User: Fold Porin from Paraburkholderia tropica.
Amino acid sequence: MKKTILASTLGLAALGAHAQSSVTLYGIVDTGIGYQSSATSLGKTSGGHSLVKMAQGIWAGSRFGFKGSEDLGGGTRAIFQLEEGYNSATGAESTSGLMFSRAAFVGLANQQYGTLTAGRQYAPYYTLLSAYSPTNWLTGAYGAHPGDLDSMDTIYRINNALVYTSPNFSGFTFSGMYAFGGVAGSTNAGSSWSVAANYIHGPVGIAVGFERLNNATSGGGTWSSSSTAYSGGEPGVSGITNGFQTAQAQQRLAVTGGYAFNSQWDISASYSNVQYIAGAGSKFFDTQIWNTGGVVLHYKPFTVLDLAAGYSYTRATKANGITSAASYQQFNLSQYYSLSKRTGLYFVEAYQRAGGQTLGTNGAGDIINATADIGDGQNSAPASSRSQFAGAIGIIHRF
Assistant:
């Protein structure tokens, strides 16, 4: 249960007669057991074995956080959020060395003028597209598009970011972000920017977003350690992008939308164009492009039961000496049973089939067969073969 504390109960009324503050403690604990076929370590294409393990954060990443606001008068509020991810199976930080890895920002909000926040947060590309993301019902661990290539799950968080989000104008909302790179002598290196807009009216909605992430090293570097988005070693490299992790920049353009037929059935769809752009120091030479299309059908036959099925198709362009471009087809199912408003049981299943060729860890010249990498939960242990199956059962509790 969310715990809210009013400032007056803490003896802080002296801060101002008009000011009322509140702080909310919230969180999620999510733990299960997962199975994965043909698992190996990133960069290897042989020697895979099946894997059964305790898995956590499958349906929704385990976390705890604080968020609060203070009424400043005139319709303006000061707001903040601090959110930490953790491993519910071991108690470890989800991202080593980051105290509040999921969010750490402060800002001002006004119903008439919008919201401005500063700190570590999600890009508008994600927040405005997420209403129709495949991860809503298929989970990110198993249902994100291969490797979460198009950043529709929550693994991409941006440091040093300023984000403005408009009020809702009759269903229309827009947002923009700029994140400072902090590299001496260069305003571009390590910086990121994003713009997005969505329109939701009754049962129908559509969203469009763009983001560009520039590497902090001018000639290309490893995204897992040297870019604004991945500072602190957050995951960004997968079996899909492993050969292109020295990109000078990444950029994404995506469209999502959905329609609710009634209280039981709804459908959502998405399309994305992802580009990894080579620099002088990159280990590949042509811009690498992936196009992904996906659809999710959600059915709620009873108040306590949610069922979903999804399909996505990802195809790379012919580049960097590859004549048989990589492709990935992914099929997903999920079942969620509510034990209460705050606790649920879930089952998820996924299968992916890869085809074509891609680049290995050494980049250009290291051409290998593309291998499967379901969602983003298998990024550190993708398949050693063309096909992979993964499934999990778990319990989630929200407080």
In short: Residues 181 and 190 are 4 Å apart (CA to CA).
